[in-house]
């Protein structure tokens, strides 16, 4: 018991409280900071100079894309696979492979895929006669954000697919049997039976992708580190840079607290939405 | 009858084509990584971008391992991951045992507080843990990673283990006590062996988490001799910007252990991800 509590206190509980405390300081990491109340939080949005609001908006775009593009793809794959196609296990195992890879590997690999001259993507575009489309995807302010989202989609679709698949598999097969005997079509079964019955897991999946988008760091850090000109900046990359490059410990902590609060708030909202859905 | 079957048949074919395309999208980048890890720039830039290498340049691997320090990073990653798994399992089995099997005030409360830890993003702890580690002079050592990784893995460990421990009958404890077994012996020689499946799930999950973690690794470690694979490769990619072969080799080296683990235990790996979601 004691070791777990100790680790918990030192690594999770105490740091959260310390973050709260740091966020009220004007502190460069040396010596001790001066207490400035909520000034740091104000600085995030009022008279902001480092584009924090923009990074928040970018993370919202990630959120929308994950919930409305990634989850539907995962759900579709899960329903197809759970319906029993040939090679069900093979496909499931393959789709899950990207999930276990390290984000650094995925990021570096996609940087090569996006490489302006020899990347897979541009090579492919040229070979099908779309060479005018080929350009530096990550270096262009217009495409950087989308180009960072695609590897995220690539990596985590398999994860959500697996969660939803497991949920579908745990439904009593007799229910499907009965529906089929009653002459319900596959699409109808999916819409009227499968999706309502896996709502709890869908909720978990949505919460994970919402939180994941709000605190996204790894792939953005590897691929663009927020660039070019902050076109793909997200709160976490800005936070790490503010703290460890800019030595604004207090202000950076305010960003950290903001991210946590945002995650808690959105989790709460998603829970409410799903509660309302389940009542219908 | 025949007319009715044709659309279904076409539908099925389209379905399979979609499934296969997604499978190719999942696997092709990894195949591509493998091929360019064995090529040199002349071959890649000379037109053979996606084909198998003409000459298999295994030298890229020894180059990455020896000149690029990937050997050291690999070793560090192994040590960090192994110790994190060991500490996580010890701490979370003991804690779960204490909370579920021993009667004391607040044991339920302690459990729920520990599980809340799962919801806390690593961002919250980043700076405070950094400050603590700096004061303890542990920055730039692997301990600055092992300690927080363990802390963040424990809630998940407790969750997984409590599920299995619940299923082990309490009568076992009682009869062991009657036979004169003390608590420690009961725990180590009776309960622990029975928890083996849960421990395996927990180990797999912890392995992937700490093997792939990036945010703490890049902010806490800047000296080559303590870098893990994620941060090491990230900095190596900066140096070898134009040399594809050695980077590819380094990425393969970071990926192979996870892929081996995944192919040997794909069921176990997937289970470890689902368990966390089902109860979270």
From TrEMBL, chain B:
Segments traversing the membrane: 12-34, 72-97, 109-130, 142-165, 186-208, 244-265
Domain called ABC transmembrane type-1: residue spans: 74-265
Signal peptide bounds: none
Chief localisation class: membrane
Topology relative to the membrane: Multi-pass membrane protein
Pfam families: BPD_transp_1
Keyword Transport: yes
Keyword annotations of the record: Cell membrane, Membrane, Transmembrane, Transmembrane helix, Transport
Subcellular location: Cell membrane
CC per GO annotation: plasma membrane
Keyword Transferase: no
Biological process per Gene Ontology, one example term: transmembrane transport
Cross-referenced Gene3D superfamilies: MetI-like (1.10.3720.10)
PANTHER family assigned to the protein according to its UniProt record, in alphabetical order: ABC TRANSPORTER PERMEASE PROTEIN MG189-RELATED-RELATED (PTHR43744), SN-GLYCEROL-3-PHOSPHATE TRANSPORT SYSTEM PERMEASE PROTEIN UGPE (PTHR43744:SF8)
Protein family (similarity comment): Belongs to the binding-protein-dependent transport system permease family.
Protein name: Sugar ABC transporter permease
Species this protein is from: [Clostridium] cellulosi
